[in-house]
Specification:
6-stranded mixed sheet, alpha/beta, 25 helices, about 725 residues, 30 strands, Aconitase, domain 3
Length: about 725
């Protein structure tokens, strides 16, 4: 099927045509009613009659409806696809240029610089897309997830995307899963997407949001309840009367940030708000098709009546009583009501003065988000106030930018001093050329993004980032301090009079419809076979891949410990973004950041360790390169939820490239564990978490019995002390 700027209704109709029968088959096999998640998964099983679907146990094959890739991860994914030698991709696929645009001056200037600086990469992605039948969204189109929501997502569908926030499409009732590039390549070549069948977490919402509370506060509360690993291996399904009261884009916000609890994805049932959104985004025909099968785009009635029988865990949230939240710093699950953050900051000794405020990102850049933020800006302007911090706005897409510009919302925000950035990820992913704060200088930023790990936004480990809703960001930007409670505290107008901000008011959708703005989509030609893909052997941005060496069939013995991470070790710690994004298509060059942010468990220092070869202190990237060049294989040790965060497979490819054989941890984040397997690094978890503490800096590791490695069976390992003595321990392999 030809790739176009939106999902063809014929594709959707084909998915819906089999939905009732597939759901009936699943009910018969399971002997019970189905959740919405189970219906969507059943409808996309490669073998619906015999596939095993035991939760948290079975590895199951699925056929997604489409694949989406952003420019930073698409490079490596497409370099891998090219090695398959196929003439075209086997599934509808799009590439979106959103990660390589750095925020510095403003939208137009930053976009021009990005197009010039990244010309080689953008040209590569455009030509590969032309050759292999992939739709291409040019720089300036917007953030991948907003563009997918506006054009490709549909209720009851299933997609995978090479970005961890792909679940954003769950706002339109789609099972949308973030994956590494190798998983995407499986689908591109016609193979199934294989994943462990998920557990199911149900979130029942009652009441309705009002005043300062927003959809962002729902997921910030869920993050508090489940923590950053509580959703690992699970799909989160929202339901209840409160769910039906939230707009489609509000639902997308909640699903988007489900990545921060480790969830495989999140999903909402089809309702009037989804129908309305589809119609407003020129997809009336898809809404009509969804209406025909609406009963199977929601959980069965028996599930809604007694959810605890059908979900592995059920959470109840009353939207009537939900307070606006602000989460951080350093982790998206450190939650508290906005009313308490000032007192917490004082107690912890954090700065309370805010240095920068940012709204936008794939999580919060919808029309509704901007209208709520702009309503506060108009109040401030009426009192002669401007933001007392820098305020930056990242529109989610060209369609959003054009519409909020037409409707005067950008002007409202600019009137209080906001700078409008490009339609791109920008500071949310570290693409922020920041000069107002020195590296190492403690400071506070507030944003409407999704992640707030150290160094995440500006490369400064001393920046304390707090995540909240766009409207709360604007209120705090007007006050300039974390000690301001927008619900109760007053601001002082230019005339010296005090006033309290009225609660934000928003519009779910533009009354005059969306303005699509500049057309930035490039459809592939019918025949791309004549297009030549050229990668210069001297390029420092792109590098053709050669296969890794096959396993020699032997046990891993005498592996030195290159890195033992203390505490949180995210994909940002393993393979930083920011300035390193430019090397995402060059495996050797990007390996120059391997473990650069990891905290050494033996010293407490970031990025420095003792080289196992000669005992010298070097950076982790230098040690990895030294061991690679010396042909010394090695092991890395991690703590809980190792590899949380991004879907970037570079965090798995770099260790493999540098000679890593095994990663041993207390627990893994789902996507990273899958990426390690795909790249041929053995991921193992300690059977006894205390074993982590027993491994010394000069110890070595043996992993034995690999010829008989079996999913779910224990793996025999040994710690080899410097004196030659050994300590046996057991590790687990998920398969």
């Amino acid at each position: 099927m030809t790739v176009t700027a939106s999902t063809p209704v014929e594709l959707v109709a084909g998915v819906y045509e089999r939905l009732a029968n597939r759901s009936a088959t699943a009910r018969a096999r399971l002997g019970r009613p189905l959740t919405l998640t189970e219906k969507i998964l059943a409808n996309h099983l490669r073998d619906p009659e015999t596939a095993e679907t035991e939760r948290a146990v079975s590895y199951t094959d699925f056929d997604p409806d489409r694949v989406a890739m952003q420019d930073a991860t698409a490079q490596m994914a497409l370099l891998q696809f090219m090695t398959a030698g196929l003439p075209q991709v086997a599934a509808p696929t799009t590439v979106h240029c959103d990660h390589l645009i750095q925020a510095k001056v403003g939208a137009l200037a930053d976009l021009e610089v990005a197009v010039d600086t990244n010309a080689e990469v953008f040209d590569f992605l455009a030509s590969v897309s032309e050759k292999y039948g992939i739709g291409f969204w040019k720089p300036g189109s917007g953030i991948i997830h907003q563009v997918v929501l506006e054009n490709y997502a549909f209720p009851g569908g299933m997609m995978i995307g090479t970005d961890s926030h792909t679940p954003n499409a769950g706002g339109l009732g789609m099972v949308a899963i973030g994956v590494g590039g190798a998983d995407a390549v499986d689908v591109l070549v016609g193979q199934p997407f294989n994943v462990r069948y998920p557990k199911l977490i149900g979130v029942r919402l009652t009441g309705s949001l009002s005043g300062w509370s927003s959809p962002k506060d729902v997921i910030l509360k869920v993050a508090e309840i489940l923590t950053v690993k509580g959703g690992t291996g699970a799909i989160v399904e929202y339901f209840g009367p409160g769910a039906d009261s939230i707009s489609a884009t509000g639902k997308a916000t909640i699903c988007n940030m489900g990545a921060e609890i480790g969830a495989t994805c999140s999903v909402f049932p089809y309702d009037d708000n989804m129908r309305t959104y589809l119609r407003h985004t020129r997809r009336e025909a898809i809404a009509a098709e969804a209406d025909k099968v609406a009963a199977d785009l929601r959980a069965d009635d028996e599930v809604l009546a007694d959810p605890s029988r059908f979900f592995d865990q059920v959470i109840e949230i009353d939207l009537d009583t939900l307070e606006p939240h602000i989460n951080g710093p350093h982790s998206p699950d450190y939650a508290r009501p906005v009313s308490e953050v000032g007192a917490v900051a004082r107690r912890e000794g954090w700065p309370t003065k805010i240095s920068s405020s940012l709204i936008g990102s794939c999580t919060n850049s919808s029309y509704e988000d901007i209208t709520r933020a702009a309503s506060l800006a108009r109040q401030a302007s009426a009192h002669g106030l401007k933001a007392v911090t820098p305020l930056m706005v990242s529109p989610g897409s060209e369609q959003i930018r054009a519409t909020i510009d037409r409707d005067g919302l950008l002007a409202d925000l600019e009137a209080i001093g906001a700078t409008v950035l490009a339609n791109a990820c920008g500071p949310c992913i570290g693409q922020w050329s920041r000069s107002d704060v020195a590296d190492g200088e403690p400071n506070v930023i507030v944003n409407s993004f999704n992640r707030n790990f150290p160094k995440r936004n500006d490369g400064n480990a001393a920046t304390l980032a707090f995540v909240t809703s766009p409207e709360t960001v604007v209120a705090l930007a007007l006050a300039g301090t974390l000690e301001f409670n927008p619900i109760t505290d007053s601001l002082t107008g230019a005339d010296g009079e005090k006033f309290v901000l009225a609660p934000p008011v928003g519009e779910q959708l533009p009354e005059r419809g969306f303005d699509p703005g500049v057309d930035t989509f490039v459809a592939p030609p019918q025949d791309g076979s004549g297009i030549k893909i050229v990668v210069s052997p001297t390029s420092d941005r792109l590098q053709l891949l050669t296969p890794f060496d096959a396993w020699d069939g032997k046990d891993f013995k005498d592996l030195p410990v290159l890195m033992k991470a203390q505490g949180k070790c995210t994909t940002d710690h393993i393979s930083m973004a920011g300035p390193w994004l430019k090397y995402r298509g060059h495996l050797e060059n990007i390996s120059g950041n391997l473990f650069a942010g990891a905290i050494n468990a033996y010293t407490g220092e970031a990025g420095l360790a003792k080289d196992p070869i000669d005992g010298e202190t070097r950076t982790y990237p230098e040690i990895a390169k030294h061991m690679h060049e010396a042909n010394v294989s090695w092991v890395a040790i991690g703590d809980e939820n190792y590899g949380e965060g991004s879907s970037r497979e570079h965090a798995a490819m770099e260790p493999r490239f540098r000679g890593c054989k095994v990663i041993l941890v207390r627990s893994f984040a789902r996507i990273h564990e899958a990426n390690l397997k795909k790249q041929g690094v053995l991921p193992l978890t300690f059977a006894d978490p205390a074993t982590y503490d027993a491994i010394g800096e000069d110890d070595r590791i043996n992993v034995l019995g690999l010829a008989d490695l079996t999913p779910g069976e224990p793996v025999r390992c040994q710690i080899v002390r410097p004196d030659g003595s050994t300590k046996d321990f057991t590790a687990l392999h998920a398969g």
